[in-house]
Design a protein that fits this description.
By secondary structure, the protein is of the alpha/beta class. Helix content is 26%, strand content 25%.
């Protein structure tokens, strides 16, 4: 089966799973996921599954990427979005097709560099990357219309809530135990934060600081 056929099958699967926003489906269709996976997993790039990347991290399942993107409610392209946890760069690439500017923070230097290179390869020029502590957000660029977090926090970081615009939306997995995490959508209304539980998820933990690099070989 060709990559194009696999991509069509994936889009149909996403639609059946409840991802119905046409702008999100179009963005997923236009981003070459094979550019963000390790070479040894290239044949699985358009399967609806998470795949390992370096530093014990993963590129998220396409359904989760699409669902979280849809949950952000990107009804305007003139938006500024903060992503916590760049990882492979795939989520940022999908967002880049939908909004004016994406700011994304990664705590692993190697992943930060690899994601930058991957985004550059496909000509993405509206994503700004940073090596840093995602739990602190990016105060110099705040406030943000939307914030998306791709690692699970024990509680929602106050810094991220403070950097969300009034009327903005934060989408974040929350839960210490990987088997009992929930994806939350939080809407800011003045000083009020209205939480909505969307679905059970499983993410790596959101950790503070810049990481010490581990020697790994996920392709081995």
């Amino acid at each position: 089966m060709s990559d194009e056929a696999r991509k069509i099958r994936l889009l149909m699967e996403l639609r059946r799973g409840g991802v119905t926003a046409t702008n999100v489906l179009s963005a997923v269709e236009r981003v070459p996921r094979d550019n963000f996976v390790l070479p040894s997993f290239a044949d699985q790039a358009y399967e609806n599954t998470a795949l390992p990347i370096h530093q014990g991290q993963t590129i998220s399942q396409p359904y989760v990427v699409a669902f979280m993107t849809q949950a952000l409610g990107l009804t305007s392209s003139n938006l500024k979005v903060l992503e916590i946890g760049t990882g492979s760069g795939y989520q940022a690439a999908v967002l880049s097709k939908l909004v004016r500017r994406v700011f994304t923070i990664e705590r692993y230097r190697s992943l930060y560099r690899e994601a930058e290179a991957a985004l550059k390869r496909i000509g993405v020029n509206n994503v700004v990357t940073k090596l840093g502590d995602g739990m602190l957000g990016w105060p110099e660029q705040a406030p943000f219309d939307r914030i998306i977090v791709t690692a699970a926090a024990e509680t929602v970081p106050d810094a991220l809530k403070a950097q969300l615009k009034d009327g903005g939306i934060l989408v974040i997995p929350v839960g210490r135990d990987p088997v009992s995490q929930s994806l939350l959508r939080i809407r800011r209304q003045g000083d009020q934060f209205i939480e909505e539980n969307l679905l059970p998820v499983r993410f790596v933990p959101l950790l503070p600081g810049i990481a010490r690099e581990a020697q790994d070989n996920p392709e081995g």
